[in-house]
Structures are given as C-alpha cells and as structure tokens.
Specification:
Distance between the termini: 106 Å
Number of domains: 2
Shape: globular
Helix content: 10-25%
CATH architecture of the largest domain: 7 Propeller
Number of strands: 19
Structural class: alpha+beta
CATH superfamily of the largest domain: YVTN repeat-like/Quinoprotein amine dehydrogenase
Strand order of the largest sheet: 3-4-5-6
Order of helices and strands: HEEHHEEEEEEEEEEEEEEEEE
CATH topology of the largest domain: Methylamine Dehydrogenase, Chain H
Number of helices: 3
Strand content: 25-35%
Length: about 290
C-alpha cells in the first residue's frame, strides 16, 4: 500500500518546521542573508493553509538574486534606479512642426525673390502659431497639425525690404511685428500692428533702427531692441525712453517683478569683438534697472 504523508495538524507542524529551518531559526529572520550564504534556502518551499491543505508556491531561486543584505536594494529598486539614471542621460527630441520654406516655394507672397529665413515664432491663445519669415518679408501661420499658409505680407518702404524679425502679442490682443529695415543713422524700421485673426495690417509706428526684439509688460508698455542703434526703447503712452545696450537682440519682461532682460553683444564673436580699437566682451544678458 502506498504510504501517505501527514495530514491535518501534523502536516501544518511539518511545514512550519520546514519553513523555520529554511529561514534559519524560529523567528524567520533574513537579516544575515546574502548571495552565496550557506544558510540560503533551497529553490522550492512548501506551505499549508489553516485546514492543512498543501499550497504550491512558485519556484523561485531565493538563494541567489532575490535576497540582499539589510539596508541593500532589491531587484525592483535597482531597476527603478537604473531607469532613472537612463532618463537623466537621455536627451530631448524635436520634430518638424511646419515647413515654412515650402510655403515660400509654393506661394512666394512677397514676389521679390524666393527666400526663406524663419526667425521668430509666437504661439497664439487659439493654438495657431505665427512665424516671422525674415527673408520672405511675411508672416506664416500654421495649425497645431502643421498645416501652414501665408498670413501677412509686409511692403517695402524707404528703399528697403521689411525683413520681419520679432513678434509679440500686445495687451490689446493684437499682433505686433518688429522689422530689420532701418539703420542707426536713418531709423526707418517699423513696428507693425496686425490683426491676429485675419492677418490684416492695422497700422505701424516708425522711427526705429533695425529691430531685433519686441516685448510687452503687463502694464502695456512696449520694449523695442534696436540692434545697430545700440538701445532698448521703452514706449509708454506714446513717449519713448532709451537705455544704451550694446547690440541688443532678444528682450523679455519678467511677469513677476516687471524687470526687463535683454541679450547684449548679440553679434559679437565668442571671445569678443574689436570695436573702435577696443576689445568687447562676448555675448551677455543684461538686466535693465530702470528707464
């Protein structure tokens, strides 16, 4: 007759004793376990429920990689840490959002020549994006899906092309566009006012020299970077006030404290430029204290 193993309470006691032996003591402490320890358990462990029925546990190699010394990391923590380190080393990705040159090649809105140099980008509240195409002398609008089309064409004036370089959304909800037309000796560059829904030109203000940056404060004051004139101009209630900044370009207003920041020496060499017999610094960012 086939010999039967213990059942009921006998089986529970047998399994409990086996389990305690595997754990190295009646309390089952695993604090001293490590890889290669002679007290590490065998690969298969049996258990029983309250009624004495045997339960099959999944086969695990408990004596090799699943156990670590007290204070060490288990396999899950190690995997998470490795993933975190890999993410820190990973660089961001970019993709094409719109083909501005394709719009120029297809439509050539300005008609002077087929050229395209996308310069400034502005996101509108409705999800559309506006691009100032400096060489194309126009604005291009594209949807969140990347569908691009001509939006505004700027006319030549003062014997020069417009060359739009900077964009800003004004407190009145209108689009403002700065252009490069103009020189320090003859400031003819304009700030154009454009309807952001239709692209229609609503007006302009002239008398600037080569605009390369445009920004607004929460109070409605406009700040204009004039590259060759070497100044940043504050326009408030029709009054203009200048602060000298060498070769200013991008300009921004801090929304928290209203301070104005502008890039300086924007077209200087990496190690500076010799200007009027003196060595200049390289590129910098200046904080304008006051006008």
């Amino acid at each position: 007759m086939r010999r039967r193993g213990p059942r009921g309470p006998d089986l529970r006691r047998t399994q409990l004793r086996r389990h305690q032996d595997l754990l190295g003591g009646a309390h089952g402490s695993t604090a001293g376990w490590c890889r290669g320890s002679p007290r590490a358990p065998p690969p298969t462990v049996g258990f029983a429920d309250r009624r004495g029925r045997r339960l099959r546990a999944p086969r695990r190699d408990l004596g090799r990689r699943d156990l670590r010394p007290a204070g060490g990391r288990g396999p899950d923590e190690t995997a998470v840490e490795h993933a975190r380190q890999a993410a820190a080393r990973r660089h961001g990705k970019a993709r094409i959002a719109a083909d501005v040159t394709a719009v120029e090649l297809k439509h050539n809105p300005h008609k002077a020549s087929v050229e395209s140099n996308p310069y400034a980008v502005l996101a509108l509240p409705d999800g559309r994006r506006i691009v100032a195409d400096a060489a194309g002398n126009d604005l291009v609008v594209f949807s969140p899906h990347g569908r691009a089309r001509p939006f505004t064409v700027f006319p030549d004036h003062d014997r020069n092309q417009s060359v739009p370089t900077s964009l800003a959304l004004g407190p009145d909800g209108k689009l403002y566009v700065g252009e490069l037309n103009g020189e320090a000796a003859k400031p003819t560059a304009r700030v154009w006012r454009v309807d952001p829904r239709t692209g229609k030109i609503l007006g302009w203000k002239s008398g600037y020299g080569s605009i390369t940056g445009l920004a607004f404060s929460d109070d409605g004051e406009m700040y204009v970077s004039q590259l060759l004139a070497g100044v940043v101009t504050k326009v408030s209630h029709g009054k203009r006030t200048n602060v000298k900044v060498p070769f200013p370009a991008g300009v921004a207003v801090d929304p928290y404290d209203g301070k104005v920041y502008v890039s300086a020496w924007s077209i200087a060499d990496r190690d500076g430029t010799v200007l009027e017999g003196r060595k200049t610094p390289g590129g910098q960012v200046w904080k304008i204290i006051g006008f």
